[in-house]
Amino acid sequence: MLRVVPGGTFSHLTVFKPATGRARADRLHVYLEGDGIPWLTPELPSPDPTPREPLMFDAMRRDPATALYLGRPCHYVGTHEPPCSPLAWTHRRYSPAAVDSLERALRALLVKRNIRQLVFFGHSGGGTLAALLAPRFDQSRAVVTLAANLDVAAWARTRGFSPLDGSLDPATQPALSHRLLQWHLVGERDTTVPPDVTRRYAEGQSAATITSYPSFDHRCCWLDLWPELPAAVDAALDAAPRVVR
Predict the structure, then answer these.
(1) Model's pTM, two decimal places?
(2) N or C: less crowded end of the chain, CB within 10 Å?
């Protein structure tokens, strides 16, 4: 089911997919896309950040669980109206306004749905947003990131980029709860988000697991992990001791 959901500041394209087979209906897998196309050249912002090849949408379609593709600000919905402007998908791509809007959109989608657990999956900058969104929901149980720039400042320095002024940085936020399952996956051939950026973030977390894939880069070959990866996350959650919140 496709809907455009207002988040207060931005509008978000969303696609909801019910569970198939024996997947539990009260656990929602939330998928967040990468940054798309923020720049055309190092000096010229893109007129539209919408990704041409939405990796996480393809991953969501392969997932038999109850799943939601939560579109990022200004992706797919047009950029002709404020607050969409190049700043929104360049320096402020992880801004408080962006995270607040994603939170409101997700809360609106949860109304009247019996969702008791949330599992966030994010690729690249979508993983950054997953780490920022998860602590805002009592239902959060896991954060799974792929090639994610979780230490935004370190990533910008490593790549020689200007700082993302106006963006939140997961590495400077309070550590996520030790009760939250964290799996951070890196590709050793990734030059867009070098693996050490993710490892540096994980060092500041109490319960983060890093898994390295020697032959993977920033885009290849993450889809090969579906549907086994989300199934493994679900199995780990089902096996974990029950926590009363």
Answers:
(1) 0.96
(2) C
Q: Count of domains in the chain?
A: 1
125-133 helix and 96-110 helix, angle to the nearest 10 degrees: 70
Two tokens at 174? 């309070």
CATH number, position 122: 3.40.50.1820
Domain for residue 56, yes or no?
A: yes
Which pLDDT tens digits describe the chain residue by residue (245 residues)? 899 999 999 999 999 999 988 888 899 999 999 999 999 999 999 999 999 999 999 999 999 999 999 999 999 999 987 899 999 999 999 999 999 999 999 999 999 899 999 999 999 999 999 999 999 999 999 999 999 999 999 999 999 999 999 999 999 999 999 999 999 999 999 999 999 999 999 999 988 999 999 999 999 999 999 999 999 999 999 998 765 44
What is the DSSP secondary structure assignment for residue 230, as one 8-state letter?
H
- The answer to whether residue 244 is domain-embedded is no
**Any domain includes 245:** no
CA 204, CA 175: separation in Å to the nearest integer?
A: 7
